[in-house]
Specification:
alpha+beta
């Protein structure tokens, strides 16, 4: 998208240069050279050549230049808008990735060790015969819910990486 925008901008830049070039005199042939023979004339051989020289005395091509410059400015603004939107997408993807990374780090440092300790305590309670079935199921439910949340965070972190790479 940026390459296409750059190519469009360069095309507009060339159009501005072309309009500025039309301000200066240019020599053009108005007709093809012609040879004519006339036996009844004093000068029997006649050669004619037409040359046009455009002198922009009264026309400095301001209208064409202003249009070309306006189109170039419009294309520049479109390119800048595209670049700003791409930067915004990259910044958003990077911020999302940082949030996911910080949450994963918190889980690794605080939640996962607490879950391991909780499982160790449940194992000790079961071995000692001090836990009833309802408390055991409630404890396992908490552990499984938190582990599922951790795995969902891992998936979201990977999606954030993919979004950043795609952007």
């Amino acid at each position: 998208a940026l390459r296409a925008a750059k190519a469009r901008f360069l095309q507009r830049e060339q159009a501005v240069r072309r309009e500025y070039a039309q301000r200066w005199p240019w020599i053009q042939l108005s007709a093809a050279p012609r040879y004519r023979y006339n036996s009844s004339s004093k000068y029997q051989n006649d050669v004619m050549l037409g040359v046009d020289v455009s002198l922009p005395v009264f026309n400095w091509n301001r209208g064409g230049i202003m249009v070309a410059e306006a189109e170039r400015a419009e294309e520049r603004e479109r390119t800048l808008a595209l670049l700003a939107s791409m930067r915004q997408e990259i910044a958003g993807a990077h911020a999302r990735l940082e949030v996911q990374r910080a949450t994963l780090e918190r889980y690794r440092l605080k939640v996962l060790p607490a879950l391991a300790e909780h499982e160790r305590l449940l194992t000790l309670a079961i071995q000692g015969g001090q836990v009833d079935l309802v408390a055991l199921l409630q404890g396992e439910d908490v552990v499984l819910r938190n582990r599922r949340a951790y795995l969902e965070l891992l998936v979201e972190h990977r999606r954030a990486w993919l979004a950043l790479e795609r952007t």
